[in-house]
């Protein structure tokens, strides 16, 4: 009997439910991996239930989420590959830096270090009905129009409305405040020796530009993690993990894992 496939853990970001990964889990299982997509702390597997119990998300920070996923990973029989999107990509990078993952993929990662993700910052500056502050609500919601403008810029109105209905959930304000104030550190304790490989897949600017500009989310890994620069998904929208582009992105990741000898 052959060796079981490596575990793969998918981590989503804010305002999207865990169901964005359902096709990904099926695809990676078909490729021979042991794939799973855990919920965030306080999240239910069903988006309607999460929306109805949004108070369960109050107070959740990125550090809380990191510990939550570390606990989930600790139950596995070997360190997994972690694949994250947006704020989930920041968590994936941190799990890799902390040595609990063997490799990581950061799909369109949120920025860290006094900078909000560009789409959220634009929404905050241009939409007077969207905002957050330490003294405001502890839960940040989005309308379908705000979801469209933040995540589905390459989609039609009907497509964005469909994605909103299927995937949208409210979010805790804490992760937004953390990245805006540099309150979330990608590396708590430097890893002993080189960390495993990191595949970076941005949609807003090439990987080499992120490195050249010393983006805080990348600079922390410069000396310890190999940042791949061989592929970019420029201009196709932040919704690339749950829109019609998802399989193209998955193909690149599957090929990269094969190239790195990480299938088994």
TrEMBL record:
InterPro entries: AB_hydrolase_1, AB_hydrolase_fold. One of its GO terms (molecular function) is hydrolase activity. Residues 8-251 form the AB hydrolase-1 domain. Transmembrane segments: none annotated. Coiled coil: none annotated. It comes from the Bacteria. Keywords: Hydrolase. This is Alpha/beta hydrolase. It comes from Naasia lichenicola.
């Amino acid at each position: 009997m052959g060796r079981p496939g490596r575990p793969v853990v998918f981590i989503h970001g804010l305002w999207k439910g865990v169901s964005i990964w359902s096709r990904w889990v099926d695809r990676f299982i078909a490729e021979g991996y042991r794939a799973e997509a855990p919920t965030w702390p306080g999240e239910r597997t069903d988006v309607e239930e999460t929306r109805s119990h949004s108070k369960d998300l109050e107070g959740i920070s990125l550090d809380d989420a990191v510990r939550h996923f570390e606990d989930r990973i600790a139950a596995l029989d070997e360190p997994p590959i972690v694949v994250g999107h947006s704020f989930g990509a920041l968590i994936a990078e941190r799990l890799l830096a902390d040595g609990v993952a063997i490799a990581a993929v950061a799909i369109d990662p949120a920025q860290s270090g006094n900078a909000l993700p560009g789409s959220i910052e634009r929404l905050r500056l241009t939409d007077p009905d969207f905002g957050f502050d330490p003294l405001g609500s502890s839960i940040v919601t989005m309308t379908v129009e705000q979801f469209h403008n933040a995540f589905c810029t390459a989609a039609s109105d009907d497509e964005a409305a469909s994605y909103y209905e299927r995937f949208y959930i409210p979010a805790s304000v804490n992760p937004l405040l953390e990245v805006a104030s540099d309150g979330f550190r990608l590396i708590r304790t430097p890893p002993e020796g080189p960390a495993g490989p990191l595949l970076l897949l941005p949609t807003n600017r090439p990987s080499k530009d992120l490195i050249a500009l010393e983006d805080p989310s990348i600079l922390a890994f410069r000396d310890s993690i190999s940042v791949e620069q061989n592929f970019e998904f420029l201009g196709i929208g932040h919704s690339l993990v749950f829109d019609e582009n998802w399989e193209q992105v998955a193909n690149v990741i599957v090929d990269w894992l094969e190239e790195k000898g990480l299938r088994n």
